[in-house]
Design a protein that fits this description.
Helix content of chain B: 40-55%
Helix content of chain A: 10-25%
Strand content of chain B: under 5%
Structural class of chain B: mainly alpha
Number of helices of chain A: 1
Order of helices and strands of chain A: H
Oligomer: heterodimer
Shape of chain A: flat
Distance between the termini of chain B: 20 Å
Chain lengths: ~70, ~90
């Protein structure tokens, strides 16, 4: 199956951009929306179907600075 | 195209996982009609695959599959045996 993409992918913004009725000293998390998913094959490997939730952590080996190859 | 037993099992696992994640999303986004359509598509696909698996390779679940004669459940490799499972490798992601 094809990777799912919302009807107008270029117009799809994966989170709400305006927070209303905000109060001082309170934390707000913008509501997220589904714009696209990984393919089912890729999702099972990655452990999530949501591209925004996927972070490709690299393995850290002894003596190497994080992020080096 | 005929799928091998392993391919079919992998496909079912993939779709089941996909359905679980979509399900979680829909719990907090019950009005996302496109996601519901996608969810329904996947559920129908995996249902069809389960039926095909059942037809070609025997029983997938002990209490939710039909059996040919003679009783098929005892012929399957058990889920905890190595050859029951497919290998999940980066290459076929």
């Amino acid at each position: 199956m094809e990777t799912y993409t919302a009807a107008m992918p270029d117009k799809c913004i994966p989170q709400e951009t305006v927070l209303e009725n905000v109060k001082l000293a309170q934390a707000y998390v913008p509501f997220q929306f589904l714009c696209s998913t990984f393919s089912p094959e890729s999702s099972l490997m990655k452990g999530t179907i949501f591209p925004p939730l996927w972070d490709n952590y690299r393995r850290r080996t002894e003596g190497m600075v994080y992020g080096d190859e | 195209m005929e799928m091998s037993r392993n391919e079919m099992l992998k496909r079912i696992t993939e779709l089941d996982f996909f359905i679980i994640d979509l399900h979680l999303y829909l719990n907090t986004h019950p009005d996302d009609s496109e996601a519901i359509t996608l969810y329904n598509d996947c559920v129908m696909q995996v249902k069809e695959l389960r039926d095909q698996y059942n037809m070609h390779y025997g029983m997938l679940l002990a209490n939710n599959s039909t059996s040919k004669q003679p009783w098929q459940w005892i012929d399957n490799p058990w889920p905890w045996q190595k050859n029951y499972n497919f290998e999940l490798t980066e290459g076929n992601s």
